[in-house]
Design goal:
With 459 residues, the protein is of the alpha+beta class. The protein has 2 domains: 113 residues, Phosphorylase Kinase, domain 1; 273 residues, Transferase(Phosphotransferase), domain 1. Helices cover 33% and strands 12% of the residues. Strands 1, 2, 3, 4, 5, 6 and 7 form a 7-stranded antiparallel β-sheet that branches. Helix 4 runs antiparallel to helix 6 and helix 4 packs across helix 13. The chain is globular and about 60 Å long. It starts with 9 loop residues before the first strand and ends in a 20-residue tail after the last helix.
């Protein structure tokens, strides 16, 4: 590929060639993601995320209010700042802090359960519950998408490009999401093995623990925001990340969330915030501010990892049931979050399987029509593949991650010391890659070269 052969492409930031007619890698309300080629690096493929400005990315007038423009700029600048911090290598001081204060076993933790943030300098957090020695063995670039470039204003700060008045973020290209990975197993009517699931689970927990150790909470962790890039699972969509221990107040619309993956305490705040209609009755204690805690992400990780066993979004049937009786999606979200944050509604296996009273399916959209069908599903898999039958897997998630009281929830770093991972390497990428190659070949992409791939990249 040469520059001369790409004259019909757009040149972004005077460096990246982008085909305006090619299929998008991803699209959001205020941005699109396209495959680009780095002319300064042998035309290496990159992902170019373009924020829509008042003229729109296609040159036409975009219907974007001044408030939304400010929100986009806020999210853009936060994304750049977060990616820079996350991509920074561990310093000698970070390694020493982990060596001296790292949690060696989650049973031994005696400190306060809340995560206390240190200054936003990119160093490791002072709270020892966020430390684990295994984190120091993994390079940050293997946990988060690599930031390649971004637009700058006339002063050189992240912002609207001085040339075309548009905002861009350029990163490495990811291959496929965890959601896509699991869909292939589901479509093939097979199960992911326990060994493969443990590798995926440890990888996901590790990257989230690294996020927390660097001082941030993601707040929208779900399978589609966990992507495979080369040999590693990585966390994407960090423009909604907030610093640990900071306060979010009512009216802040720059943070996104997904109801079926959010923690009970986050759901409680969203109801009070006004994103959903406040119910007339309920057990929630409505608040106007919320302190950002690492354990909010732990809940989301637990829900996501259970999909390794169930092969579907666990709480989607519950949400759909509320939607059927609600007058709008907003009201359905309210009813679902009110159920979620009510501590009297403790979770159990029946909730996970979509069953009621061990007899019939609570929702006709659930994965099983009866408890017997659910049992047959679990028994049909070998002992190695049936994650619902594995005591260690279910203990970690049900007893230590999906705990409605956030003060009793493990941190991600503590989860890494759970007995489930005793025989799992600290950096399982090589083993995991072998398992992935044997168990799953992406039909649409397996025959393509890296430069030809058009992977999904969430915007």
């Amino acid at each position: 590929m040469t520059y001369e052969l790409k004259q019909n492409y757009n040149l972004v930031l005077n460096r990246y060639l982008v085909d305006p007619n090619a299929e998008l890698l991803g699209q959001g309300s205020f941005s699109i993601v396209q495959l680009g080629y780095d002319t300064w690096n042998n035309n290496a493929p990159v992902a170019v995320k373009t924020y829509k400005n008042m003229q729109g990315v296609d040159g036409r007038k975009a219907v974007v209010s001044d408030e939304k423009v400010k929100e986009m700029i806020k999210r853009f600048r936060r994304q750049i700042r977060v990616l820079q911090v996350l991509g920074a290598e561990w310093s000698e001081a970070d390694v020493a802090a982990t060596r001296n204060g790292a949690t060696q076993g989650y049973w031994k933790s005696t400190t306060d359960s809340n995560g206390v943030a240190s200054s936003m300098a990119g160093g490791i957090q002072s709270n020892t519950r966020l430390h684990n020695a295994s984190l120091m063995k993994m390079k940050p670039e293997n946990a988060f998408l690599k930031l390649v470039d971004f637009s700058k204003d006339a002063s050189g700060k992240p912002g609207l490009d001085a040339t075309d008045n548009t905002m861009y973020v350029v990163t490495e290209v990811a291959d496929y999401s965890l959601k896509e990975y699991l869909s292939e197993f589901k479509n093939a009517h097979t199960h992911i093995s326990l060994s493969a699931a443990k590798n995926v689970a440890k990888s996901v927990i590790t990257i989230v623990a690294m996020l927390h150790a660097k001082g941030f909470a993601h707040l929208d962790i779900k399978p589609e925001n966990i992507m495979r890039a080369g040999n590693h699972w990585k966390l994407i969509d960090v423009d909604g990340c907030l610093e640990l221990d900071t306060q979010i107040v009512l009216g802040d619309s720059s943070v996104s969330f997904s109801p079926v993956y959010c923690s009970p305490e986050w759901g409680q705040f969203m109801i009070a915030k006004g994103d959903v209609q406040k119910p007339q009755t309920g057990a929630a204690d409505w608040k106007t501010t919320l302190q950002i805690r690492n354990t909010m992400d732990v809940w989301s990780v637990g829900i996501s990892l259970l999909e390794l066993a169930a092969m579907h979004p666990l709480f989607k049937p519950k949400f759909q049931a509320f939607y059927k009786v609600a007058s709008s999606q907003k009201q359905a979200t309210c009813l679902f979050l009110d159920w979620l944050c009510n501590r009297k509604n403790e979770l159990g296996l029946n909730d996970i399987l979509g069953l009621k009273n061990n007899q019939t399916c609570l929702f006709e959209t659930g994965p099983f029509r009866s408890y017997g069908e659910a049992q047959n599903f679990m028994r049909s898999a070998s002992n190695d593949a049936s994650l619902f039958c594995d005591d260690g897997f279910m203990d970690l998630i049900m007893n230590h991650m999906l705990v409605k009281d956030p003060t009793q929830r493990m941190t991600a770093a503590e989860c890494l010391s759970h007995p489930l991972f005793e025989d799992t390497p600290d950096i399982p990428a090589v083993v995991e890659q072998k398992i992935a190659q044997e168990a799953w070949q992406p039909v649409a992409r397996s025959s393509l070269s890296q430069a030809e791939r058009t992977p999904v990249f969430s915007s």
